[in-house]
């Protein structure tokens, strides 16, 4: 029973994390599309790799992503097209389900032939670019706890250093080992999240229509807790100095917690972000609300502030300067995801949420099998197991084809519903 309860807690936390990440991504995309200046900047960012790649690629030093970098980091129409396609599919998942479509970006990039460590760095850089472009801080300054953000960022920087050092050390030892390590991490994450989401979906099918309706940007998430959890109450009662005060505008006298707990949560978020390339924000919400006992009002603003520093520090200072960021891919992911989120969000107005949620579970499980079937070849490459090259290639091909077919089918289904209901959406 204890293991079952722990599993349920982890599954629900991952679902909440995905919902929080999706809400953040939707807000960022809305802020960008509503501003002409931001749209102009986005256009220039998209054109830049074309100009640089065509005119100066042969002259770029390897560390900046020239043709001698760890993977081809120069411009190519095919590369940009693949990136936009992957970003579009991830954006559609995020917009439709209101959960983390970003979980499939790194596995998708690896399936497209990008080295794991570069997929991680590139994903982080695209998240950082989205955060910088989409953040409207003047709307959120009233609910930003600077003290919480500072303590959290100190921890996240430490976590980023450790996580990035592990990734780079493994890559330096063996690029194949690096891919195997990152694939293994995603096997555990996507396997747990995917099968939990599938079980949850099957349970919802048996429920009444009113209990299974999934909204566009909170789908799958339970109502935000109005009271502090027992764990948070325990942590807030620890009298160690220094203590950080927060939520003064919500609770008379505010709440206080030891700075070490905040820094520890930041360390975990930074470490996971640097290892997986999924961005620091996807774990921040459940940690702030359920573990630290911070109100969702304060969490939203503080999370926006910290993700800029965490993703920026990780992507630029721990990956980009070592040649592990593929700029053309990052811009393609940014453009594709922004479009996908908007189309996906609109489609939820005319499609039953339950079935979209079923697609989400299948998409995550497809990502799980994609990385799982890639593992035999990676492990054989480093001598851990003995598998013939033909068998390993066959398994990897099955995983790649199955993944992209399922994600592609989901995308076509969403687009067909979007186009078929275009007049209805225009009226709304």
3D architecture notes:
This protein is mainly α. It has one domain (11-427). The chain has 16 helices and two strands. It has helices at residues 2-33, 36-56, 77-97, 105-111, 116-134, 146-173, 175-206, 209-212, 230-236, 259-276, 281-292, 296-317, 327-347, 353-381, 389-420, 422-427, and strands spanning 243-246, 255-258. Helix 3 packs parallel to helix 13 (327-347), helix 4 crosses helix 5 (116-134) and helix 5 crosses helix 12. The longest helix is centred in the first third of the chain and has 32 residues, at 2-33.
Relevant terms:
single chain; 428 residues; mainly alpha; two-stranded antiparallel sheet; 16 helices; 73% helix; 2% strand; globular
Bulk shape? globular
Average the pLDDT over all residues and give the rounded result: 79
Radius of gyration: 21 Å
* Relative helix content: over 70%
Q: Distance between the terminal alpha carbons, to the nearest Å?
A: 48 Å
Q: What is the string of SSEs from the N terminus onward?
A: HHHHHHHHHEEHHHHHHH
Number-wise, the strands total 2
- What count of domains describes the coordinates? 1
């Amino acid at each position: 029973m204890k293991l079952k309860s722990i599993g349920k807690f982890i599954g629900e936390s991952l679902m909440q994390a995905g919902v929080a990440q999706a809400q953040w991504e939707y807000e960022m995309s809305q802020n960008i599309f509503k501003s002409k200046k931001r749209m102009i900047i986005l256009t220039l960012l998209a054109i830049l790799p074309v100009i640089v790649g065509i005119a100066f690629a042969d002259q770029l030093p390897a560390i900046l992503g020239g043709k001698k970098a760890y993977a081809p980091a120069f411009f190519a129409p095919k590369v940009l097209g693949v990136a936009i396609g992957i970003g579009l599919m991830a954006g559609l998942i995020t917009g439709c389900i209101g959960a983390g479509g970003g979980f499939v970006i790194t596995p998708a990039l690896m399936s497209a032939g990008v080295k794991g460590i570069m997929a991680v760095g590139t994903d982080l850089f695209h998240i950082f670019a989205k955060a910088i472009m989409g953040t409207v801080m003047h709307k959120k300054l009233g609910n930003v706890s600077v003290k919480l953000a500072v303590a959290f960022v100190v921890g996240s920087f430490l976590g980023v250093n450790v996580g990035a050092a592990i990734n780079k050390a493994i890559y330096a030892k063996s690029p194949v080992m690096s891919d195997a390590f990152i694939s293994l991490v995603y096997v555990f994450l996507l396997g747990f999240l995917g099968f939990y989401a599938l079980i949850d979906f099957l349970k919802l099918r048996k429920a009444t229509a009113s209990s299974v309706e999934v909204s566009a940007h909170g789908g799958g998430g339970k109502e935000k807790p109005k009271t502090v959890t027992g764990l948070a109450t325990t942590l807030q009662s620890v009298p160690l100095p220094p203590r950080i005060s927060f939520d003064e505008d919500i609770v008379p006298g505010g709440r206080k917690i030891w700075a070490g707990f905040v820094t520890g949560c930041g360390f975990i978020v930074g470490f996971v972000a640097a290892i997986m390339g999924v961005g620091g924000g996807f774990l921040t919400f459940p940690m702030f609300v359920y573990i630290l006992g911070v109100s969702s009002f304060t969490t939203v603003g503080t999370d926006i502030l910290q993700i800029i520093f965490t993703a920026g520090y990780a992507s630029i200072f721990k990956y980009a300067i070592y040649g592990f960021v593929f700029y053309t891919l990052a811009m393609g992911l940014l453009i594709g995801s922004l479009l996908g989120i908007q189309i996906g969000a609109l489609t939820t107005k005319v499609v039953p949420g339950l079935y979209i949620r079923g697609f989400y579970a299948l998409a995550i499980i497809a990502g799980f099998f994609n990385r799982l079937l890639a593992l035999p070849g990676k492990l054989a490459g480093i001598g851990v197991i003995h598998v013939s090259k033909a068998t390993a290639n066959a398994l990897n091909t099955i995983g790649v084809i199955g993944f992209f077919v399922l994600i592609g089918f989901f995308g076509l289904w969403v687009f067909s519903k979007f186009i078929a209901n275009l007049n209805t959406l225009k009226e709304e």
